[in-house]
From TrEMBL:
SUPFAM superfamilies to which the protein is assigned, alphabetical: Moesin tail domain, PH domain-like, Second domain of FERM
Keyword Coiled coil part of the UniProt annotation: yes
Membrane topology reported for the UniProt record: Peripheral membrane protein
Coiled-coil segments: 271-436, 476-517
Subcellular location(s) of the protein: Cell membrane; Cell projection, Microvillus; Cytoplasm, Cytoskeleton
Species of provenance: Rousettus aegyptiacus
InterPro entries (UniProt xref): Band_41_domain, ERM, ERM_C_dom, ERM_FERM_C, ERM_helical, Ez/rad/moesin-like, FERM/acyl-CoA-bd_prot_sf, FERM_2
GO cellular component: a single term: microvillus
Source taxon at top rank: Eukaryota
GO molecular function: actin binding
Protein name as annotated: Neurofibromin 2
Keyword Transport in record: no
Domain FERM, residue spans: 1-269
Entry keyword set: Cell membrane, Coiled coil, Cytoplasm, Cytoskeleton, Membrane
Length: 554
């Protein structure tokens, strides 16, 4: 970490002042070095500004075990990601989409549909240009497939997403391999590949699958004289392995890479030094602390979501009660209006009934007066009888109308009573709604941490932990459990990759396939790309003598 920071500081000063020398300070797990570099000693461009890239020279076999510090992991992740995007490391299209989803998780965090809307990846460089040009797919289609996998990574922190990215990348065929053009004794042009596992011989047209491999534990000595490079196997009965390179400078670089990778290869297979053990212990404690912090944040987030749901439910119920109160008020107003109309109508009907009764009495009086009057002549008598008959009919009709009006008045009085009863019930319901007990505001009290979780205190800039043996054992069991889950997940992941490959195969433009694409497809059809380590392991099953003989015959 310090080396990367010091290098970047020197680089920025170089761009401003343009000095002829710069100082690089490198800190490793075993030593601390500081040296001066002459800018003119390197083949750099004379144009300004001059750009330097400080990269990892030796790649880890297992990134999860060897990258202890989080900043080291992050910087190495950025380096591998850039090499994949620049196509220095070949990556199949389906694996490119999966790696892009982990890169998005590392940058943006958990997927949120309300925040990460369509087009939010439009300005991101996530896929190699070779993959984009190989298929008839729009940027929106690529974003849709990346987002579908991105949504499945919910809950992963940045360092976890970056580590998942590196776990997939470290199994790519060209990961960590430095290629050099060489010739054997017959003058055949070949490629020498140097990586963390050993030396590999490739056909110049096929950088994915080596023809033969020599693991570091089978090599005893490496040296060169002028342009001839000599490798002595561990078995002294086997002839030395020789090849020629194009330049003396290349031999120096090959030797440096061989010595460094061989040393790291043997060191990985020995017990860690005390300093490395302390660093790993600190890393485990830091991981456990972060895990507890994430659990605490997850609990707080869950409690906050529950409080928000409770608040929303109370607001919904309050709104429902307001609507019920409004409806009750409206029903009460309608009942009052209906009661007023019925009362008015009943009053009018009662007055009409009184008027009809008065007219009936007047008719009865008139009939009695007519009967009392003596009519002397028959004609007057007949007329009088006719008038009497008419008066009787009229009186009968008026009596019937009076009776009907009385019944109607009684009915209106009954309707008025019912309306007043409905009005009384509406007032009572409104009173019940307005007098319901209100809900107290939700003040969620954070739940106390479980007693079995180790405690830690933050005081100023210092951090103190209290881990028990049981906690470390539990952490070890969790790590073992994660390994088992990872193996099961790998099988599911391969199925997803095959499914995506089948889905986008119909959109592929065959004429745009590169030589590496064709080689990768042939290896896939033969089942030869299941694992980089498995491929090299199969090649090393042959005896070292037969591999040397095969190299000489190429």
């Amino acid at each position: 970490m310090a080396g990367a920071i010091a290098s970047r500081m020197s680089f920025s000063s170089l761009k401003r002042k343009q000095p002829k020398t710069f100082t690089v300070r490198i800190v490793t797990m075993d030593a601390e070095m500081e040296f001066n570099c002459e800018v003119l000693d390197h083949d750099v461009s004379k144009e300004e500004p001059v750009t330097f890239h400080f990269l990892a020279k030796f790649y880890p076999e297992n990134a999860e075990e060897e990258l202890v510090q989080e900043i080291t992991q992050h910087l190495f992740f950025l380096q591998v990601k850039k090499q994949i995007l620049d196509e220095k490391i070949y990556c199949p299209p389906e694996a490119s989409v999966l790696l892009a989803s982990y890169a998005v998780q590392a940058k943006y965090g958990d997927y949120d549909p309300s925040v990460h809307k369509r087009g939010f990846l439009a300005q991101e460089e996530l896929l190699p240009k070779r993959v984009i040009n190989l298929y008839q797919m729009t940027p929106e289609m690529w974003e849709e497939r990346i987002t579908a996998w991105y949504a499945e990574h919910r809950g992963r922190a940045r360092d976890e997403a970056e580590m998942e990215y590196l776990k997939i990348a470290q199994d790519l065929e060209m990961y960590g391999v430095n290629y050099f053009a060489i010739r054997n004794k017959k003058g055949t042009e070949l490629l020498l590949g140097v990586d963390a596992l050993g030396l590999h011989i490739y056909d110049p047209e096929n950088r994915l699958t080596p023809k033969i491999s020599f693991p570091w534990n089978e090599i005893r000595n490496i040296s060169y004289s002028d342009k001839e490079f000599t490798i002595k196997p561990l078995d002294k009965k086997i002839d030395v392995f020789k090849f020629n390179s194009s330049k003396l400078r290349v031999n120096k670089l090959i030797l440096q890479l061989c010595i460094g990778n061989h040393d790291l290869f043997m060191r990985r297979r020995k017990a860690d030094s005390l300093e490395v053990q302390q660093m790993k212990a600190q890393a485990r404690e830091e991981k456990a602390r972060k895990q507890m912090e994430r659990q605490r944040l997850a609990r707080e987030k869950q409690m906050r979501e529950e409080a928000e749901r409770t608040r929303d439910e109370l607001e919904r119920r309050l709104l429902q009660m307001k609507e019920e109160a409004t409806m009750a008020n409206e029903a009460l107003m309608r009942s009052e209006e209906t009661a007023d109309l019925l009362a008015e109508k009943a009053q009018i009907t009662e007055e009409e009934a009184k008027l009809l009764a008065q007219k009936a009495a007047e008719a009865e009086q008139e009939m009695q007066r007519i009967k009392a009057t003596a009519i002397r002549t028959e004609e007057e008598k007949r007329l009088m009888e006719q008038k009497v008959l008419e008066a009787e009919v009229l009186a009968l009709k008026m009596a019937e109308e009076s009776e009907r009006r009385a019944k109607e008045a009684d009915q209106l009085k009954q309707d008025l009573q019912e309306a007043r009863e409905a009005e009384r019930r509406a007032k009572q319901k409104l009173l019940e709604i307005t007098t319901k007990p209100t809900y107290p505001p939700m003040n969620p009290i954070p739940a106390p941490l479980p007693p079995d979780i180790p405690s830690f205190n933050l005081i100023g800039d210092s951090l103190s932990f209290d881990f028990k043996d049981t906690d470390m054992k539990r952490l070890s069991m969790e790590i073992e459990k994660e390994k088992v889950e990872y193996m099961e997940k790998s099988k599911h992941l391969q199925e997803q990759l095959n499914e995506l490959k089948t889905e986008i195969e119909a959109l592929k433009l065959k004429e745009r396939e590169t030589a590496l694409d064709i080689l990768h497809n042939e290896n896939s059809d033969r089942g030869g790309t299941s694992s980089k380590h498995n491929t090299i392991k199969k090649l090393t099953l042959q005896s070292a003598k037969s591999r040397v003989a095969f190299f000489e015959e190429l």
